[in-house]
Specification:
The protein is of the alpha/beta class. The protein has a 5-stranded mixed β-sheet. The chain is built from 5 helices and 5 strands.
Length: about 140
């Protein structure tokens, strides 16, 4: 999670919402990213989506079933669906997102009967730092 938090801080420095994501396989990082929607003019360039694409390309497979995704904010519905489709073994996230989350809030993607894969989910890892990054980012915009 430390690396994901550092990526989130870098995103904020570039004017992106501070979210970072890291994909691990065992003890090694296989992909990482941060939010890049504004810089790429791509509304799907959430940190998780970019990290998933990079991991799949690097590992040469669309099935990331032995991987863990670490992200600084509860994934939205789009990202949660992609996590399920990629068949991640586990999801670890820092701060919950009551407004836009799709895992423990909102549509709760992994509890839906149409969800074919449910990763092991643990939230709250590094929550205080991630929440402070987000608060500071949005406060500077108001």
């Amino acid at each position: 999670m430390r690396r994901a938090l550092d990526l989130a801080a870098a995103a904020a420095m570039d004017g992106e919402v501070p979210v970072g994501a890291v994909v691990t396989l065992g003890d090694r990082i296989v992909a990482e990213s941060r939010n890049a929607m504004r810089g790429t003019s791509d509304p799907t360039a959430h940190a998780e989506m970019v990290a998933i694409r990079r991991a799949a390309e690097r590992l040469g497979t669309s099935r990331l079933d032995e991987c863990v995704l670490w992200v600084t904010l509860e994934p939205c519905a789009m990202c949660a669906a992609a996590i399920g489709i990629a068949r991640f073994k586990a999801l670890r996230f820092a701060a919950e997102d009551p407004k836009g989350g799709g895992v423990v809030h909102g549509p709760r993607i992994f509890t839906q009967p149409t969800c074919h894969h449910r990763p092991d989910v643990i939230g709250g890892i590094g929550e205080a730092e991630a929440a402070e990054q987000l608060r500071a980012f949005f406060a500077s915009r108001r």
